[in-house]
Structure formats: C-alpha cells, structure tokens
Amino acid sequence: xxHPNNAIYIYDTTLRDGTQREGLSxxxxxxxxxxxxxxxxxxxxxxxxxxxxxxxxxEFFQRMQTQPLHHAELVVFxxxxxxxxxxxxxxxxxxxxxxxxxxxxxxxxxxxxHVTEGLRTTLAENLAMIQDTIAYLKGCDRRLIYDAEHxxxxxxxxxxxxxxxxxxxxxxxAEWFVLCxxxxxxxxxxxxRIINIVYESLKTWHGGKxxxxxxxxxxxxxxxxxxxxxxxxxxxxxxxGTINGYGERCGNANLCTVMPNLQLKMGYRCIxxxxxxxxxxxxxxxxxxxxxxxxxxxxxxxxxxxxxxxxIHVSAVQRNPITYEHIAPESIxxxxxIVISDQAGLSNIIAKVENFGICLRKEDGACRQILQKxxxxxxxxxxxxSAEASFxxxxxxxxxxxxxxxxxxxxxxxxxxxxxxLTGSVNSQATVKVVVNxxxxxxxxxxxxxxxxxxxxLRKALINFYPEIANxxxxxxxxxxxxxxxxxxxTTRVLIEFSNGKRRWSTAGVSDNIIDASxxxxxxxxxxxxxxxxxxSPMLTTKPF
Amino acid sequence: xxHPNNAIYIYDTTLRDGTQREGLSxxxxxxxxxxxxxxxxxxxxxxxxxxxxxxxxxEFFQRMQTQPLHHAELVVFxxxxxxxxxxxxxxxxxxxxxxxxxxxxxxxxxxxxHVTEGLRTTLAENLAMIQDTIAYLKGCDRRLIYDAEHxxxxxxxxxxxxxxxxxxxxxxxAEWFVLCxxxxxxxxxxxxRIINIVYESLKTWHGGKxxxxxxxxxxxxxxxxxxxxxxxxxxxxxxxGTINGYGERCGNANLCTVMPNLQLKMGYRCIxxxxxxxxxxxxxxxxxxxxxxxxxxxxxxxxxxxxxxxxIHVSAVQRNPITYEHIAPESIxxxxxIVISDQAGLSNIIAKVENFGICLRKEDGACRQILQKxxxxxxxxxxxxSAEASFxxxxxxxxxxxxxxxxxxxxxxxxxxxxxxLTGSVNSQATVKVVVNxxxxxxxxxxxxxxxxxxxxLRKALINFYPEIANxxxxxxxxxxxxxxxxxxxTTRVLIEFSNGKRRWSTAGVSDNIIDASxxxxxxxxxxxxxxxxxxSPMLTTKPF
Lengths: 545, 545
Fold this sequence. Notes:
- The structure is a homodimer.
- By secondary structure, the first copy, chain A, is α/β, with parallel strands linked by helices.
- Chain A is built from 19 helices and 17 strands.
- Chain A is about 40% helix and about 20% strand.
- Chain A has an eight-stranded parallel barrel, surrounded by eight helices. A four-stranded antiparallel sheet of chain A has the order 14-15-16-17.
- At the A-B interface, helix 4, helix 9, helix 10, helix 13 and strand 11 of A face helix 4, helix 9, helix 10, helix 13 and strand 11 of B.
- Strand 11 of chain A pairs antiparallel with strand 11 (about 405-415) of chain B.
C-alpha cells in the first residue's frame, strides 16, 4: 500500500457489517468470491468477519491463508475482551489469532451508557478492556485498528469519558481510530464539529503527529455518505463502508457512492482511475453473488443513473454531456442510456464483439441484427452482463459461425412427493429428446430436483458423441424472479455457471416456466463448453477458474 | 397556511418530478388519490403537473377544481414562455391559467450554456422570457414561485449571469426563489457557500427584506437529502422533494427522510407532530398506488429501519431504546421489530413472541423448544427474518395453538415442453391430495409454471371449505439457491409473500427440490391467511398492505 498525500484508505466491511442486512446471507464460497473481487477493485482493507463468532467466518480466514490477496490487507474483527478476564485468557481471542491476519480491528465502547447498561460493567473496567485487548494483540505482532462504537452519541453524552477511551486505545498501540456513528442518527454538522475535536486531541496526545482517523457511518438518517464525506473534509483518512450500502437496518455508507464522490469531485485518491472504472461491474457482480436485485436508481452505478429521456434533453446531452451529466459515466464504468436512440446500442455491440476478436462496423447487417436480437431478448428479461457465453453464441449465430452440436427437441419433467418416504427427498425424473448428427436420442434420468434430473438426462444423451462433456460441471445456479409482483406467474431468469476445471463460462435462460428457463441455460452451457473443446481454446468469454 | 417562525414549507413534487422515474406511471385517479393523501399529511404545496404538457395533467387540474384540497396549496408547473413570443400570446400558458390554481411555479434557465446550447437563444432573450412570463401571470392574479433550473452548475460557470436571472424574477414579482441542483452533482459545502451569496444578494435587492429561498435537489451523488438540509441551515425555508425519493435517474430529495430530520433533529416545523406520525403509512400507500415495492431499508419509514438482531443488542434496546435507536420509531409511525436470525437466543425469542401478544419466560419448556426448532430449521437453510408468518406458525405449534385447517398429503407435478407449440409456453400440470376435515380431496390444475399449477390445484381443493382463500394472492416469490457451488443439486429456499388486499405476510420453504420448497411455502401461506380470517384479526406478523 503506497499512497499519495491525498490518499483515502477504503476499508470494506461488506463481508462483516454488510451481511447484517436483513435478507442477505452469504456462503463461504460467496465470501471468498467477493473478497477476490474487492481485492481487484483496489480497496486498502477488507474486513472478512469475526472469526469464532460463527464457523463460517473462522473457515473463511483459514481458506484465505491458502489463497492470499494480492493488494488489500485482510482484517479480522473482534470486540474487546470480556470484563474481568485477561486478553491472554479470553477464549474469544483464540480464533482471532488463528485467523493469521496482519491487521486486527478491535471495537470498544465509547458511550458510558453502553458500558453500564449494555456490558453491565464499570467505566474503569471498560478502559482496561480496551487497553488490555489492544496491547495483547500488539504483543502478538498484530497491527491494530480501533473502532470506537457509538462514538458520536457517546461523545454527546459524556465527552470526557469518550475521549478517554480513544486515549487509552492510542496508548495501548492502536494505529487507526475509527469513529462510528453506530445508530446512524448523527447529522453532518455534528460530525464536523466532533471530528475537529478528536483530531486536535489525538494530535496533542501523540506529540503533534498527524492522527489516522477513520469514519464508519450508517444510513438511518439518509446521511451515511454525506457524513463520511464531511469526516474526510475534516481530517479522516479512512472510510469504512460496504458495496451497495448493504448493512443492518438502513445500511452502511455505500462505497459505490463514496468513492466516486471523493475521487472524481473532491480530489482525493481512493483507488486507481482504471480500477474506479470497474466500479459499476463490481457493484452488479456483488448484488448477483448475494442474489439481491441491483438498485437501478443507485447513484453512479445504477442502470438508470445516466438514463435520459425526452428529445431536447437528449440532443443537448449528445452535443455537450455536461449539460445533463454531473460526471462522465465511463469514469465509473457506467454508460449513458438514451431511451429512444439505438445509435448508442450499435457502438456498444461493436465494442463488446471486439472482445471476441471480431471486428464489426455499424453498416454491417450482422451488427444491426445482433442489436435487434439483444434488445428483443432484454425486453423479455435476458441480461447478458452475467451471461456472456449466451451472448457470444448469439453473436456467432448472427455471423453464421455457430456449429450445431445438438438440438433439444423436447423434454418432460415429473416430480412426485411420494418418493420422499423412500429416499428422504422429493425425487424428480426427466426425459429429454435430443437430435445429434440427425439422429434422435431419447434418454431419461433421475435427480434430487427437476433441474438436476434434466441436466443428467441431457448429458446421458450427449456423452457418447461428445465425451468431453464429462469434464463440464455446474458451479453456480441462480434464479431471479423478474416481475415478482405477479407471484407464481412471474417470468423467471436462470443464470448458470459452468466449469471445465480450467475456465468458467455463464449462460442465461428466461421463461415463465423455471424448468424451461433452466433447460435453455443448461443447453447453451453444454454447447458453449463443446465449442471450446472442439474449436476455440481458450475462449474469450470465459474467466480463469 | 399559518406557520411559526421556524417553519419550513414542504413542496411536494411527487406528481410531477416524481413521475419522471423510470418504470413509474400513474393514472389520473392515482394522481388524485396521492394528492388527497399529501393534503392530509400536511405539506404546504402540492405540485400537480404541467397542465398542457399531456392531457392527463390538464384533466387533473380540472378535477381538482371540483374537489379542492383542505390544507395544501395546489400548484401548476410550467416553463418560461418560448423565445420571441410574448407571454400573452404563447399558447403554452393557456392551460396553465385554465388550471385555476392560486400558485404557479415557473422554471427558467440559470445556466448560460443551457440558454445558448439548449434553448438556442440569447442571454438577453432568456432574461426577457423570465420577466415577461412572471409579470404576465402575476397580472392574471397568480402568486409566483420561480424555479431556477441548473442553478448551482449555472452559478459555478457564470455567477454574474445566474444572479441576474434571479434578480429579473424578483423584479417581475416572484415570491419564492427555488435553487435547483438539476443534475444532482453538487456537494453540500458548495450548496452552503452559494446559498449564502444568494441570500445576501436577494436581501440587498429587496431592501433588506428576508428572502424566501427554496431548495430542489437530486440524488445523483447520493446527497439529495444532505443538500436540502444544508440549504435549510443556510436560510432556505422551502424544501422541494418527493415521497420515497421518486424521480428521474437516481431520484429527488426523499421527503420521508427530509421531514423527520428537519423536525425531529433540527428543531424546524414542517407539519404537525400527529401528521408526522402518519409518514410511514403514507410512504407505503404511495408505493402501493404507484405499484413499486416499498424499500424495506429506507431511512425512518422502511420495514427494516428499526429492526434489531443479536442477543445483547436486543436486551439493551428493550431496557433503554436510545442505546440502539436514533429516534423513537412511533414518532414517524414506524415500529421496532425484533428479527429472528441465526444469532437468536432465548431473549430474542421472548421479545419476538411478545409481538404476538404471548408472554413467555426463559424457564418455559416451549421457549427452549421454539429456539431449538428455529436453530434446526436455520441449519437446513430456513431464514425467518423474511418469513415471519412461518415463524409464528412454528411458535403456535410449540404452544399447542395451531389449528389444523388442512394437510397436504402428496403432490405430483408434470412439465412438458411439447405444450409450447400449442400455447406459447411450457405448461405444467399439478395434482395434489389434501386432507380437510378427515376427508381426502384430490384435485388437478394447470399453470404457466410448475409452482403456479401447484398453487391453483391447492386452492381448488380448499376453496369449498374455506371460501376466504379467494381473497389471498401471491405478491412476491423469491428463490435463493443456498449452496450454489453444488449447482443443480443445491438446496433451494423459497420465500413467498401473500396479501389479502389489507395485510401482507411471508412464508418460507426449504428443500433440495424447488417444487417441494414452493409447496411448503404456499401451504403455510394459505394456512396463515386462514388463521387470520378465522381467528385473529389483524394478525401481528403482517405488515400493512
């Protein structure tokens, strides 16, 4: 981490505080996946969780030891030790050390009320807990970030005691002092006033050294981002937040809003400009991983953030973008959407297809055909951002370059709850009729669910012709209901990710029937894998495994 | 409108700027419905639309003449007259006068670039357009609000010209001067600096009279609310915004966030306290009218805004609410929710069950039984935070208070892709065997997908016994694959939301077979609806519709 003078250290807590959002749950694999993406984005710190608070977080830190991050510092989070124990004997700290991170974030109580009513201990014991925990972890060769929980409320109620907790953390060896607006109720002018005081106090206690202050805000007053920016303007150099503002209640400071504001408008440096231009993609990938619909109206990264309607408006923005756009959408990897003009669409297609090594011009018939087909499919719910293999197949189709490995003629799927008594689950059976080399293959298979049964039947039909299929396996299966207000009559989009152990690729299927949507995505996934094995190696719309 | 000295005039533009949101459309009846509700909430001004811009808006103002508002001033919106016409001869102003409102809001260009590049006229002609339009409408006995479009960007590029447009509006007779951050790119410190200058300029031009300044902000930088609050702190006394922050691109300042901040935290008065306590209900009613899902994570009014999880946390908030709540949820008509999550302990269960009017103690066997069952189900993938009805059924089961309306004995589901040629979609058939009053009912139904077919078959079996079932409908259907790395063999969690038109409730089902998981959730949803209809009304784990 080498940073210029106007550097702001971005501390991502999506994997810990973000997962407190109601309705959000992540698997171990999801956490690793998100950490890898955050590392690539270039944030300074990634808080992985509270090792020991649950088995998943402890396992996460173990797994991360075998696949270390390239850029970011991985941080483990914990509280101060329990009252009337010592840090050295508190079992809570054992998994924290076992996480083997260079950095540990310790949170402690700043608000006297929380010490007496929450922890039910004395103000003096709370100071001892802060001191002992930080000093012990420092003695174990860790670097320390101190999260001052309920800082602003605590300061307002008892400023002397609140400042004493920070002084204790400083003297015990913490390097960063993060002021938390835990309940999210503080307004920007109070943030400014209080940070000024903290800044001066820390500087005085530390013999004039510039203090390293962080800010951690929540959005209960709709001001998490404003509060974080205000803190930076008053001397904070670390901002804690989450991707897409995920977090308890109304969420945390949204890093997808904080970073562009700091970097594009206020002259600070959080990540490299070319990393910032990946922000929109990252935001959508994370929402995809946690399976929450992306917020189309999110600042900067939302699909509607640069959408323009109306004639005069559109011609003005095309003549001079600053008339209606506060920043250049490309700087954060978003793009202008003009509802009525398909001109922007054509250049998008050309840019995308260039990725496959294909050069198209606007005048080419295939170019217009691809655009029209894409728009038609998007209209019915397709989304190619997370299904690039399906998009490549569509492009090759338009160019007459899509070999026909097989065709699915029909399928039948059957589920019976009666199998439950025998096998413990509701087994499904599927039959599928596939045409390969002009010959029909009718196969049947059984699986734990209807989609598993269909996948197996399809493979059975194809394996004799294409033995490579044995190497392809499904690594992810995601379902999204598109017009959910229609209940069970809604359109379903299925996204499937395949792997052959070396590369991964993704396909999509859309239908008002989930089995039908899955069948489409599986069919294209197997087709794309064959395309790779037989002709193209490595393909261009795959990702390294 | 009589207001005390710390009064802030709330100007609602949900019906005009709010409807610019992508995906939002309202009928004439919807607009009247919303206007009536806003009037009851107590806002000072309601902007109804641009009469003449479309037939719906003209008709709206006609209809409102026959059913006038009780409290709020209805406002019609329009631009300055066209270049090189006179206001008296510009046909655009005919429907504006026909709207017969006391107040008219005229918007004009503040930014020189928009005059020359957008309107393609001269800077002098733009001033004449502002002067002529305002003076003409004033001559027709209207009171005038002047919206200075692109104010902040205009001021930054050419402060002299921007100020000249305001001075022109003042001299022509406008009473309010609304500074618009049309592109949403301005930061709070620039808002503060520029409003200070406007305040002093207007005061000087008007012989020392306190100026009436309004603020109109957009959320492109995630700062619409912060910017509005900053403007008020620097002298603005009118705030324009929309309910739920609806609006073009990333939306307008959310009045459901602005009003509680101003009134509960900053000492201003927007509406009466008893009106403010209707805010949560209003927010949800408006989202219902415009048919957009309410944002559960919205500040103040979201269903998750006062949701608590975690053991220590829950007991602390019950002992002393200010430990974890920045305001009293009742002040805006919201309420505290204790969430059941995998961190649940006995005290969580007790607090949660209290919501159902059931008093449990830690020593009770049922209490421990509920906790154990909850943990078991969470282990296999259940999640009760979004399925509170399923949780209530579990609690009633443990307490021996769950009437048996019906039991699903078995089901069969069948999908065939061959129907596609005939009906355009992959139809599904389901048969289900249900036991009601010890008698078996075997029914079959057809639907667009397997889950729809199953839902219909189940209703067919139950409708003769429980006709209330006809009033229950599915409003949301969510699917989450839990261990997605297992591909199609993964566990599936289905969350379903039902409504009876008055209340909403949610259930969950988990299985390695998506049909089985859906069947469980649908069964519990219908059961819970019956529980409500037959015995408890209104139930406690429902949300207002």
